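Deliverable D2.4 — example input (structure tokens):
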């Protein structure tokens, strides 16, 4: 049956408005035992003002002009659906009343419940008793009474709101983690915002903070307003309170200003601007304050300046101009070496700013890159830090060249220093690879490589390590190599799984290369590992090349069982030439026989992950590199262990290769349902025997943290204790505490 005046839809309109209003929670927040209205069984009418409805019985009183529908009443209009026990429409007064087990659903999937709905046939205003609105996004709003007036403004009396679950894992009712109750709630659809009057915040069922005035945006849209505060304490700065305020500048851009107040130092301001477009996005964050700072960090009692401006800029951007071209960059710069640690922003000891323009297609790559480094390390001179402006890199892949693949590359790089060596480099290279599978299953790869380099260096005497300098002026260098690599995978069944044993052999021949006459900017941190054992050049970067003829052999093993996987690699190399190499002592590559390197990896389901990397001395099997990374546990309860010991007896003047020993521990233990305890620590185990320049005594904690946290579907609450053990200027060792409080769906 079709009624031309959408009598009942008014109820739908009110509840619809309320649904769009906010996440829902009522004075009665629990689910209602009411079935949702099913889809209409008949096609929608052409007239949008018409309402479809069905009922068990339908009565019309001609004297009073009252239409009464009873028994599973259903009403439909353009995606809006209603179900009720009874609907009464007085045609004289225009009043429409729905009674009993009411459920209204809008096209967005939001559902509203009530005991009784009174509407006018104008569909402009109405009243709902004992209302509950459940949003598709998971929130709920409930009230003793709700009203909708002209303009779509909705007013709720004795209302409550929560985004939290109101049932436990067993489906039994429970009190939400938090909710906001209010004497009055007003929804302004023209502003897309909800306003609370006489509100009070309730946490775990206890009324806590009174909020005389409070507002929040509707749905997921961002609007201007206050965000969750940041509260912490540190020995250096005292108590800290940060109160962020978000300014919504447009749908795609916003600015967050955070004043930070301290009890022991001057206030600081933090600002963050974000913008998103169809091509990409960028974000920039800045900090600024005025305070004394330490300039002579290496002295036992560093001298401090008078009050000076201190700050930090951190930005990142990336834009995809078309399917091939992209532009990206990052900015990290600070006023002094201790600001980031002093205000617990970052523990990084070097800041790197970059830019990049890239073009990538199926067979080529082109990039223009640049970067600069700001050091925050004790004893480092900023004038010796590199500025790369620019680097050009072009690569092209050509298939089916003499049956193989040809890779071409052209690269130029210019590095400048304000008080150090300047270097310019250009090279072109070609690498041809031919890969074949023999009838016996061996994988054979033949490689031919050639490269021509041109260098120009100045002020080389400013580089203290002679082997890094090169010669002043222009220098040319030619590089060539031939390589043969053979793998023979042997596969079979084992213990109900599959195992694979792969012997591997490689021979590389390269004529003598004049390495020391050119500077070494990018190949300093050389060390023999499993990852570069079979590399054509085992130096990182381009500035050093491993010449002569060498043989490399190794063995790969893998075992895959149900739920378990084991992978292992071990290998060694032998160099034919007995001439001294340019590899520093202790790298494992100095003598004709290299050290033995390997890696073992074990995984058991998602519960255990264990990786061990090692290097054994070729003469006495002493462990020169011992590295372990292990994870045991589930997502809720787990233990992380990281250990690294480099015992290579390398001269301490080579900063990039100094020996060290470090232990890292971390973990989390879940208890109850939503509670957990977490912690982590970093311990410096280096002593003077390993690194004569180290100040550690062999067991020197660097920092640790320990905390407790509660986290459910709509609340994260935690307290973290952190301690730093090292002084750096005015960034003093000591304790700090952080209080974390975050509410889901409580918008700006």
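Example output (designed residues):
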């Amino acid at each position: 049956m079709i009624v031309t005046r959408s009598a009942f839809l008014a109820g739908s309109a009110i509840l619809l408005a309320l649904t769009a209003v906010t996440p829902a929670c009522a004075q009665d927040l629990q689910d209602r035992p009411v079935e949702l209205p099913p889809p209409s069984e008949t096609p929608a009418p052409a007239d949008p003002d018409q309402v479809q409805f069905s009922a068990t019985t339908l009565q019309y009183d001609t004297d009073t002009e009252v239409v009464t529908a009873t028994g599973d009443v259903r009403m439909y209009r353009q995606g809006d659906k209603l179900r009720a026990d009874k609907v009464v429409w007085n045609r004289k007064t225009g009043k429409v009343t729905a009674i009993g087990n009411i459920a209204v659903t809008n096209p967005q999937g939001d559902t509203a419940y009530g005991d009784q709905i009174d509407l006018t046939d104008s569909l402009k205003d109405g009243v709902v008793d004992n209302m509950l609105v459940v949003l598709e996004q998971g929130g709920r709003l409930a009230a003793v009474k709700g009203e909708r007036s002209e303009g779509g403004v909705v007013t709720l009396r004795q209302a409550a709101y929560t985004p939290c679950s109101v049932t436990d894992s067993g489906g039994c009712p429970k009190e939400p983690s938090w909710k906001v109750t209010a004497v009055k709630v007003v929804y302004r659809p023209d502003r897309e915002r909800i306003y609370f009057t006489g509100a009070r915040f309730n946490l775990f069922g206890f009324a806590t903070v009174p909020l005389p005035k409070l507002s929040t945006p509707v749905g997921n849209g961002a609007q201007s307003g206050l965000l969750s505060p940041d509260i912490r304490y540190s020995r250096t700065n005292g108590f800290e309170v940060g109160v962020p305020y978000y300014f919504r500048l447009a749908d795609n851009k916003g600015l967050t200003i955070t004043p930070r107040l301290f009890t022991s130092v001057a206030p600081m301001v933090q600002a963050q601007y974000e913008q998103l477009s169809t091509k990409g996005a960028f974000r920039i964050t800045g900090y600024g304050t005025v305070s004394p700072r330490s300039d002579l960090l290496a002295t036992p009692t560093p001298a401090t300046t008078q009050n000076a401006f201190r700050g930090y800029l951190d930005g990142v951007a990336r834009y995809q101009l078309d399917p091939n071209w992209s532009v990206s960059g990052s900015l990290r710069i600070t006023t002094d070496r201790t600001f980031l640690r002093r205000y617990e922003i970052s523990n990084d000891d070097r800041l790197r700013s970059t830019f990049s323009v890239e073009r990538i297609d199926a067979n080529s790559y082109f990039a223009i890159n640049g970067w600069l480094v700001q050091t925050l390390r004790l004893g480092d001179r900023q004038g010796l830090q590199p500025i790369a402006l620019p680097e050009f890199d072009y690569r092209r892949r050509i298939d089916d060249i003499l049956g193989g693949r040809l890779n071409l590359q052209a690269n130029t790089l210019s590095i400048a220093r304000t008080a150090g060596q300047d270097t310019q480099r250009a090279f072109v290279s070609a690498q041809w690879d031919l890969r074949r599978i023999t009838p016996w299953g061996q994988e054979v790869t033949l490689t031919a490589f050639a490269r021509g380099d041109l260098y120009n260096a100045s002020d080389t005497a400013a580089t203290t390590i002679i082997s890094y300098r090169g010669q002043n002026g222009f220098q040319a260098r030619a590089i060539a190599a031939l390589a043969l690599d053979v793998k023979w995978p042997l596969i079979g069944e084992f213990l109900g799984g599959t195992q694979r044993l792969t012997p591997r052999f490689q021979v590389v021949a390269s004529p003598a290369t004049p390495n020391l006459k050119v500077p070494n900017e990018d190949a300093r941190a050389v060390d023999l590992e499993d990852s570069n054992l079979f590399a054509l050049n085992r130096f990182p970067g381009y500035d050093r090349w491993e010449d002569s003829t060498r043989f490399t052999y190794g063995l790969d093993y893998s075992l895959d069982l149900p739920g378990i996987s084991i992978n292992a690699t071990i290998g060694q190399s032998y160099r034919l030439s007995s001439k001294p190499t340019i590899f520093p002592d202790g790298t494992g590559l100095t003598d004709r026989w290299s050290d033995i390197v390997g890696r073992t990896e074990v995984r058991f389901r998602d519960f255990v992950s264990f990786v061990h990397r090692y290097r054994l001395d070729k003469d006495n099997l002493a462990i020169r590199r011992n590295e372990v990374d292990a994870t045991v546990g589930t997502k809720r309860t787990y233990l992380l262990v990281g250990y690294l010991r480099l015992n290579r007896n390398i001269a301490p003047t080579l900063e990039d290769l100094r020996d060290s020993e470090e232990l890292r521990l971390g973990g989390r233990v879940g208890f109850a349902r939503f509670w957990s305890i977490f912690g982590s620590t970093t311990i410096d185990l280096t002593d003077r025997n390993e690194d004569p320049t180290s100040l550690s005594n062999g067991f020197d904690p660097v920092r640790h943290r320990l905390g407790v946290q509660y986290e459910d579907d709509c609340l994260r609450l935690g307290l973290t204790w952190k301690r730093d053990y090292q002084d750096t200027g005015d960034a003093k060792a000591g304790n700090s505490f952080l209080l974390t409080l975050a509410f889901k769906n409580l918008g700006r």
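Residues 500 and 579 are 38 Å apart (CA to CA).
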